[in-house]
Amino acid sequence: MKNSGVRIPDFLQIFHLRDTKFSEWYSVLELKDSQKFISFLKKQNFVDQGNNRFQKEQFFVMINGNHCIVGTSDLAFEKIQNQILQTSSNSMRDADEFIQNTAGSISFISGKKIQNFSIDLNKDEIEIKNNSNTEVFKAIASQLQKTNHFMELELDKDNIRNFSRFFNKTIVDSSRVSYLKTTANLEQVNDTIISYEYDDNFNEVEKKTFQKIAQPNYTIDITSNDPNTTWKYFQSKKWINSENQFTAIPFQPNVITRNNNGIVIKSTRKPVILSPQLKENYILIRNNALLYSSLKMLSSNEKKIISDIEYVLYGNKSKDYWVKIKAKNGELPLILRW
């Protein structure tokens, strides 16, 4: 990018707009030479869409005078052009409102209210947090190091509601779910593919082929204020079939049952015992070669980065949030490895 016609900024701001899809993220860059930047885009195999718009796979670029808008979508380009690029300088925010003495920041803006989460880049980990007191989260991490499951999580009603906003805003209140605990492991299994061919006499012949795929073994314990209401809600969504399988999870087979406290979903291939209850809010995902080897769409560099990660841990206590991306120990710090 150094000699592409882009003015290298002191910091890069990537933003998401209200009422747009979660997958839509944008940034605005200042240009020193727009024609040089267009030449750079063409060399990078961006397709000219006309009207100073370019696209390469999931990346979109729109050039507007001495600025360009970059995004994972082009749906909000006009809105950004009208609200940001043509806005008076009097309404611009100061960078110090968002970032102070850290490598980066994630900020949530609602009117005049700004909630900042600092991003600290350490030797072999990245920490994102909104409170410098991390003793609770260190205690959670210490407890989880005693197990080796691929995924473990405990979430209360508020955390379930926060995460379900990405999928269905009403799922918590409609289903009466109040608590969720999950333990899962990954396993490589043989998947059978059945196809049909015809012989010389036009008789149908069944053909079986096999492929190795990664499948999770899991137990999901759902606590509900009203298990019958939860069960009926899942049925109304057609998530429970006639064989009492929970179809919202694509990894079959499994079985769903209800009890006095709620609902339990278990994979049937290999039983998994729930890890001890910590009574905290967390999500832990450990790295596993079966996970990144199955992601065919990733480049070799992306696979290298993912393979270097040891685990990702999310934690919450009251209004305090914390995320750690822990890399494997290495001779070089992350900033030089990635």
Terminal-residue CA separation: 17 Å
Residue ranges: pLDDT <50 for 5 or more in a row? none
User: What is the helix content?
Assistant: 10-25%
Which structural class do you get from the secondary structure elements? alpha+beta
Shape designation:
globular
- Rg, Å, rounded: 24 Å
The total of beta strands comes to 17
Mean pLDDT: 87
Quaternary state of this entry equals single chain
Biggest sheet strand line-up: 7-8-9-17-16-15-10-11-12-14-13
Q: Write the element-wise H/E pattern from the N-terminal end onward.
A: EEHEEEEHEEEHEHHEEHEEEHHEEH
Could you please describe the fold and organization of this structure?
With 338 residues, the protein is of the alpha+beta class. It contains 9 helices and 17 strands. The strands form 2 sheets. An 11-stranded antiparallel beta sheet has the order 7-8-9-17-16-15-10-11-12-14-13, sandwiched between helices. A 6-stranded antiparallel beta sheet has the order 1-2-6-5-4-3, with helices on both faces. Strand 7 and strand 8 form a beta hairpin. The longest helix is centred in the N-terminal third of the chain and has 10 residues. It is globular and about 65 Å long.
